[in-house]
Each structure stands twice: as C-alpha cells, then as structure tokens.
Design goal:
The chain is mostly helical. The protein contains twelve helices and two strands, in the order ααααββαααααααα. A hairpin with a 5-residue loop joins strand 1 and strand 2. Helix 3 runs antiparallel to helix 4 and helix 3 packs antiparallel against helix 12. The chain is globular. The termini are far apart.
Length: 252
Amino acid sequence: MILTSPLITSLSHRLATHPLYAAVTTRAALQVFTEHHVFAVWDFMSLLKTLQASLTCVRVPWTPPASGQLSYLINTIVLGEESDTLPDGTYGSHFELYLAAMREIGARTAVIDTFVGMVEQGTSVEASLAQASAPGPATRFIASTFAILSEGHTHATAAAFTCGREDLVPRMFRQVASHTSILRPTHPAFFYYLDRHIELDSDSHGPLAREMLQTLCNGDEQRIRESVHAVERSLMARVHLWDGVHEAILAS
C-alpha cells in the first residue's frame, strides 16, 4: 500500500537529497552519525513491538489473535529484526548488531547503554533520555515516535513503521553505504548492518509491512487519512534528525 500527499513527496525528496550523506565520509563523521542514529535503531524496535503486541497475543492466558494473517506478517518481521543471524553465526537483534558496529568504529556507546539500562529498570523513556544526556536531535525523534504510539491507532503505527522506516531505510542506507564505501574494508560489522537492512527491507520486510498496512486500513478513508498524517510526522521527524546529525558532524 502506498500512502502519498504533497508533504510526503516533499519530505521524501528532502531525505533523498539530504547533505548529511555526503558529510559521512570519514571515520570521525561516522562515529558522530552512529552516536545519534543508534537511538533511531532502538526506537524502531519500540514501533515493531507495539505492532506485535497489538496484532498478536503476548499475554497469559493466551487467546487467539484477531487475524492470523496480521499475526503472521508482524511475527515474521519480528523474527528477522529481533533474532537475526549475526556475522559470527550467533543470533541477536539488529540493535545489538549496531552496538557491535559502533564499538568496531570507535564510537561511544556509554550514552545509549545508560539510556537502555535505565529503561530496563523501569524509568520512563523521557526521563531516561534526559538523565543519560541523549543528543537533542535523537531525543526529539523518539518523542515524535512515542507521540504516535500514545495515540493507540494500530493502522497509524503501521503507517509510520512501513512508510517511515521499512520503505525508507533501504534508500537512506544505500546513500550512507555509497558515501562511506572507503571505510568498508576496516568496518565490516557496520556494513553488514547496512547491507542486511537493504536486503531484508527491500525484499522481505518492506512487502510484508505494506501488506500489513493495507489490511489494517482496508480501504477505510478515515484510517487512510490518519495513516497519511502519521507518515508525514514520521518523515518530518527524520528530516529534523538528519538536520541535527549533519550540524553535529560539521561542528565536530
């Protein structure tokens, strides 16, 4: 399912031509990039798990999900995102793979580690971001995502997930991979992460997510309008995140 509007078209063009990509050409720039972007990698999992909680049964006592088709679609995506095969043959989430890639390139993980540790202990996301001193652009990006989640519309969450992530990520990551190609020989974990997402999201997760979104909207005009608005918000948040990361790279 394709959702579009003049604003979506404009924002998509801004993201496709953003100057950030051309700025990530050195190891130092890549470090700054990942120290911000890792929060979007974590944030993605919250979108994903919200959808899984809405479309399947993850509670006890168990009851059958409302739609076996939707349960299959989201569980298939979760399998690849939360327990994929890692380069060493073990299994783990793409978030864990990203952290390994950060360590490989010498990026700092203390802030994201502190943030996740606080969330694990039950501290709110907002308070954890503040107390961990997360970068401002990443904090605002997460706030935008959680605003969509808090509204409780599964179709809107699916739209943000599908059009703001699964369809968008391969195009963005191809740009990052192209401009940082000189670093590929010395940073295999980071490029494994990029290549894996380009492959999965293009060939598997993207089509599954679009089918999920189409099923949830089911031609309902109100749901489609709400979904379009969610996509607009998601793309705008990504533009602002990229603006902030770009500024941080230039400042460094």
